[in-house]
Records
---
Amino acid sequence: MKKFLALTLALMLALAVMAPAAFAADYPTKGITAINPWGAGGGTDNCLRAFCAALEKQLGQTITVDNQTGAGGVIGHEAIADAEPDGYTIGMITWELASYGPLDMSEYTYENYIPLCRVNTDAAAITVNTKWAADNGITDLKTFIDYCKAHPGEVTMGGSSSGSVWHVAGGYLMNAADIDIKMIAYSDGAAAAVKAAAQNEIQGVTVSAAEARSFVESGDLTMLGVMDTVRNDIFPDVPTCEEQGFDIFYATQRGMAVPLGVDDEIVATLEKACAAAIEDPDFVAAMAALGQKIDYLDGKDYGEYLAQAAKDVPAAMAVVGLIDEAEAA
């Protein structure tokens, strides 16, 4: 009897060890939930839904987007990290994740996730009031920076709400160009800042090219440079900052991740599906229609990108006065 019980126990232990491997090999066998920390209809929501449609083709299962909003994206980001690590909950993490710690909004960082891939970036642009620029001899990024250096603290630029991605973009600009400008936060978002710049209430904005588009096309604003490695498809005639001799790179980012603890085989399956989905023709067309840039990084490179952002974002936040320099170190 004792021998029988021992054999039974050994068999049960062996099955328990084999079960996760068998489970991972069959993954996925049911629908998947994709958590979005931001509201329906926004840029992240549009990107995520388009990407999930492409992922469904690769995984053969329905993916349902779950918008868990609130607390500046904290609720959704934490929900992704706290989900059951079985591969059936994935999510889209965004730029704001790197800002939560410095702002004491959450203890969660990129280290609470397994990154699958970066999907999208949306670069900031340096855009100024056209009349103001003409009156002050500003014709390109260099003359703008020269003017700022000659008038430290006098130039006012708008982003969006305090601590947001486009507010902090001003910090990146100041750090990289070694200038002192005054960043104005607009609680209503980038649209209010762009309107204020168009009306010459402030001198310019550090929002994305897409958000400044209408006033640039009307001639009220002039775009001087894009904080990207390549030119923006909407404004192919506007050079990047790098082309003009300034290493200024800054963009919001959106990528896919799962909680820590997900089986390696499941992670590999998801990474492979992401790599294929990023090239799906329907996804490519959807992103083009949205005016969003596909900017893929695999899981490993995305993890390195997130680690660097965890250093760069606090440094820029300190420059615009959101946190102390000691906190950014």
Note: The domain at 125-249 is CATH 3.40.190.10 (D-Maltodextrin-Binding Protein; domain 2).
---
Amino acid sequence: MSEDSFIPLSVPNLSGNEKLYVNTAVETEWVSTGGPYVTDFEKSVANYVHSPGAVSCQNGTSGIHLSLMLANVEYGDAVFVPTLTFIAAVNPVMYVGASPIFMDCDDTLCLDPDKLETYCATKCSMDGDKLIDNQTGKHIKAIIIVHVFGEMANMEKILNIAERYHLRVIEDATEAIGTYYTTGPYAGAFAGTLGFMGIYSFNGNKIITTGGGGMIVSKNEQLLQSAKHLSTQAKSDELHYLHDAVGYNYRMTNLQAALGLAQMEQLEHFIQSKLSNYEFYKENLENINGIHLLPFRTDVRSNHWFYSVYIEDQFPLTRSEVIAEFSACNIQSRPIWGLVHEQLPYTSFHAYTIERATMYQQHIVNIPCSTNLKRSEMERVVACLQRMSQ
């Protein structure tokens, strides 16, 4: 490999039984949504996160859509959402005809529970067990929490607020499979398993991948059965093709699940690689003036999916200039997402005192973090940043 070969941001690591399992699926001709790997993959994820079951789907977005439907969020309702997230976490709110209320982030990059609580207490009123937005008159039914970059949102506070105001918590854990609390009242609990329903994603850049795909988990087995029913076109009689609701073609294929099962076998190894690489970056970036690597919570075992370098104001280059310099070094990096409340479809919806999200959006650069990243590649990333600082 040449010294200036391309270093991607985040790519799959297919070093296990992926080819064996996918070939088996092809040889047995179970390639569509039927087939044993789908069930095996669902069981593997459920067992890993200590959930009574799991329902596979085509992607994290479809999982959020189904979860909102099962939370009875419908036309005319409202849902609290973060603005600092990928837009796919918010779009399903619109699918069901509800309105998003955009919330700021805290220093974990996840939804700020203090501002959430203030909004509920000062901008809303209780009508029986319903939280009503004073400005719009809408019933706020749910909160979508995103565990950003594998970090855990402050679920202790968020779940307490949700209980007091009768809100259902939908956990977008699409970036956080393998993240769990190590101390406190939720010690041992995985991201995605604490709320009403949780969703994982297996997109190509995630810590494990099925190419595309997702998984829904919940403590409530009846909810999981309903999710599976809706995801398979709501068939009430499979032989005679009878349907009792408007369903969706959201099921995962056996080929995808074959890949996913092999990836699950390596997940803990991948997390250890992520952690080791993060520690290397942390040690080698701390002496570069004007930048710092964002930390992860100390009471959580994060999967360390993405690494975030904060470009301080005194650094010689802006965030955008840093990304351009990385590109010149043949290193892929990226800014954090554009804030969702500023995106064209969402400018008319309420955004509540967005401050930290704006700051982080303007200063964060994500650097290469693949589980198969070589030490020499990380050294190149560090050296490139060192040159920029001079």
Note: The mean pLDDT is 97.
